[in-house]
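Attaching the record inline, Q. Sequence:
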Amino acid sequence: MTGAKRKKKSVLWSKMHSPHCEDIKQWCRRRLPILEWAPHYNLKENLLPDTVSGIMLAVQQVTQGLAFAILSSVHPVFGLYGSLFPAVIYAIFGMGRHVATGTFALTSLISANAVERLVPQSSQNLTTQNNSSLLGLSDFEVQRIGVAAAVSFLGGVIQVAMFVLQLGSATFLLTEPVISAMTTGAATHVVTSQVKYLLGIKIPYISGPLGFFYIYAYVFENIKSVQLEALLLSLLSIVVLVLVKELNEQFKRKIKVVLPVDLVLIVAASFACYCTNMENTYGLEVVGHIPKGIPPPRVPPMNILSAVVTEAFGVALVGYVASLALAQGSAKKFKYAVDDNQEFLAHGLSNVIPSFFFCIPSAAAMGRTAGLYSTGAKTQVACLISCIFILIVIYAIGPLLYWLPMCVLASIIVVGLKGMLIQFRDLKKYWNVDKIDWGIWVSTYIFTICFAANVGLLFGVVCTIAILIGRFPRAKTLSIKNMKDMEFKVKTETDDETMHQVKIFSINNPLVFLNVKKFHTDLKNIIQRENTTNHPLDDISKCEQNTLLNSHSNGSYNEDASQHCLTEKRSLILDCSGLTFFDYSGVSMLVEVYLDCKDMNMDVSLANCTDSLIKAMKYYGNLDSERPIFFESVSAAISNIYSNKSLNKLSDHSEV
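Structure, as predicted:
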C-alpha cells in the first residue's frame, strides 16, 4: 500500500515538474540560438568557407576597429577590443547568420559627442604626464574610454529594457525609406569625419547642428594646408581598393578565394612608411603605439550615466535599426527567420557585457555583412573564427600596426561605406513607386546630415506616422462582393412580384476613430451608386437615400418613405473578414448602422466576425436576440436569408 502511494506521488510529482523543465528548455533554445544551430553544424561542408570568411572578416574588423575607435575619440587599441567581445556575444544570442557585430561608424560618431563633451581635448595637457595602470596609457585616454564604455553600457541597458517590454513588434514603423535615408546620411557623416585624414589637415572637433557644413567650410578656408603626400596616398589607396574589389566581384565565380586587398594594402603601406620614415620625413600621421594584451575587466563609471543619456538612446536606436535591417536582409536572402525582439536582447548584451572590457558601442556594419556574403560564409562560426585572428592581432601583431598611415586607414573606411553610399540609387525606385516615400527619404537624409543620425531616424518615424494618419482615413473601407451573383428575385403568393435584394459588402480595413466617418460615407455612396444603376430598384434607391443612410445626418426619416420600404424585402451582409481590429468608435458605428437598418425593416447580417467583435457589439448595443446576426461565413448568412423567406411563405399560407 505504501509503495503504491509512493508510486502515485512520484507520478504526480513528475507531471507537475516535467512541463516546467520542458518550458525551461524551450526558453533556453529561444533565447540562446546557438543551442539550435551549433549541435547541427556540418564540419565537412561549412568549416572551410567559414574559415576563409572568418579570416577576411578579421581583416575588416581590425581596420574598422582602429578607425572607428579614433572616430569615437578614444585610443585605437580599444577598437580592437570592440571588434572582439561583441562578436562573441552576438554569436551566442543573435539570430543573424551573416551579421558581423563589432565597432560601427554611426554609434562611434554618437559616442564621440559624449567623449568630446565630458573629456575635451583641452584637458589632455593636465593628464598626459600621468600614466595609469591600464596598458600604460595616460589618464586622459582612460577617462575617454570610460565615457565611451558608459555610453555602451547604458545603450545596452536600454536595448535590454526594450526587449523586456517586447518593443521589437514596433519595428514596423521603421520603413525601408527611413532606414535607407538614415544610413546613407550617417555614411555621409563618416566620410566627412575622414576628410581630415584623407587630406592631412588638422581639423578641430566640430559637432552639433549643421556641423557637417561647418567642417567643409573649415576645409575650404584652409585648403592651402592640404598635405600633398597624404592626398596622393589616399587617392592611390582608394583607386586600388575600388579596382581590386570590383575585379573580385566580377570574377568571384571563377576564383575560389578573393584577394584580401585590405590586408595587402595595410601590410604594403605600413612597410613603405617604415622604410621611408614617412612620419618624420613628410609629417604623415600614423596609427601609433598599439599596446599588447587585454586589461582586466572594470566597471564603467556609473557616476556619468546621467550625463550620457542622450547619446545612449542614440546608440540604442540607431545601432539596433541598422543591425536589424542587415539581419532581416540576411534572413530574406538565405530563407530563415529572425526574431526582432530577440535582436534587442542580442545587441543589448553585446553592448552591456563588452562595456566592462573597455569597448566602444557596437552594432552590425553593412560592409562586414557584405563581405560575409561575398566570401561564402555559412554560419556564425565565421564570426567566431575571426575573433581568433583578432586575438592574435591583440597579443602579437598589434605593435606592428604603428606605421600604418591614417590616410590609408581612412581610405579603407571610405571604400567600405560604398554599400551605404550607393543607396542614393534608391531615389529613382521610390520616385517611380511612391512619391511620398521619395519625399520621406529626401527629408530624412537632410535631417540626418544637418543634425545627427538619431535625429534623422526620429524625424523619419514621426513623418511616416503622420503620413499614415493622414492617408488612413481616406483609404477605401468597403467594396462590393460578387453583386451579380448575389442579387435575386423571389416570387410571393401575392399578385405583385416583390424584389428581395441582397447587398454584400466587404470591409477592407480596420474600423477605428480615424476612418469611421469614411466607412459610413463609403457605405452610403456604394448603395446609392448600385441602386441608381439598377433601374427596377429606383423606388428602393429613393427609400435608402431618404431614410436609411440620411438618418445619420438629420436624425429623422420620412414616414411615407418608410411605409413604402416595408413592402420591399432587402438584406445587407457585411463581410468582416478584413476587419482586423477595431476600437470603441468602430463598434459604435457598426451598431448604429444595424439599429437604423432594423428600424427600416432591413435585415443586416455580419459574417466572418471575430469573437472579440461579437462580444463588443453585444455589450455595446441592444441587438436582436430573436434573429441570428453573426454568421461564420457569407454563404451561411445567405442560407439564413433563404430559410427565413421560406418560413415567411409558410406563415402566409397558414394565415390564408
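DSSP finds 30 helices and seven strands in the chain. The longest strand covers residues 500-507.

More tomorrow.
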